[in-house]
Amino acid sequence: QVTLKESGPALVKPTQTLTLTCTFSGLSITTSGVRVNWIRQPPGKALEWLARIDWDDDKFYSTSLKTRLTISKDTSKNQVVLTMTNMDPVDTATYYCAHISTSKSFDYWGQGTLVTVSS
Amino acid sequence: DIVMTQSPDSLAVSLGERATINCKSSQSVLSSSNNENYLAWYQQKPRQPPKLLIYWASTRESGVPDRFSGSGSGTDFTLTISSLQAEDVAVYYCQHYYATPYSFGQGTKVEIK
User: Fold this and answer.
1) Which end of chain A has fewer CB atoms surrounding its CB within 10 Å, N or C?
2) How far apart are the first and last CA of chain B?
């Protein structure tokens, strides 16, 4: 059974850097074909894809946010980490990690973690 | 970047009636290498993550009731709920996975009339 779980601060101040961790079980980030993503959703709004990291360490980013995002993996802990710099109140959202399959798209999701940006 | 546009933004349907949601991509998501459309549909209920319903534009995910169906190709796609049930009240999103950056439609809220 594949499970993913996001963790990180619930509150960050404007201009701070956000660090989120996705811990997963039932799949290994070192297995060929495993690709883990971050997606966010502001309250009451649509989903927005942020970044992806693959088993072979390929990385992909949102065009509009790529200057602020860094995705990385810790293979020993089976974790994927997302950092987002210069946080702003408009970045307030639920942040999800999700696995993507080349055939099915986002087939496994975490429950999400709400991050509020406020002074 | 590919832009996904859904219509309508919301719809109210009577129980047992048909619900139809449209999705248009700003460029084709049909792959010439395998003739598959890289288009998925998700259902999201309040305080839950999205749930995959349909992939390859028309393939139902395991466990998804057969009242949900997807159709379309290229740039125009449709999600149909053939007989709306109370538990289908949710927001539905289309999403392309043709290539990064991936993108979602703005969502369609389905309610009971």
Assistant:
1) N
2) 36
| Nearest CA distance, B16 vs chain A (angstrom) | 27
A107 has a chain B CB within 8 A of its CB: yes
Retrieve residue B46's tokens: 């309040």
Substitution target from B9, B52, B91, B109 for chain A, most A beta carbons within 10 A: B52
Separation CA A28–CA A78 (nearest Å): 6
Q: Hey, what are B52's tokens?
A: 């995959």
- Could you report the per-residue pLDDT of B46-58, keeping only the tens digit for each? 999 999 999 999 9
B65-81 pLDDT, tens per residue?
Answer: 999 999 999 999 999 99
| A80–chain B nearest CA distance, Å | 18
Tokens 């390859």 appear where?
B56
- Whether residue B15 contacts residue B86, with contact meaning beta carbons closer than 8 Å, is answered with yes
How much is the average pLDDT of B101-109? 98
**Contact present, A12 and A92 (Cβ < 8 Å):** no
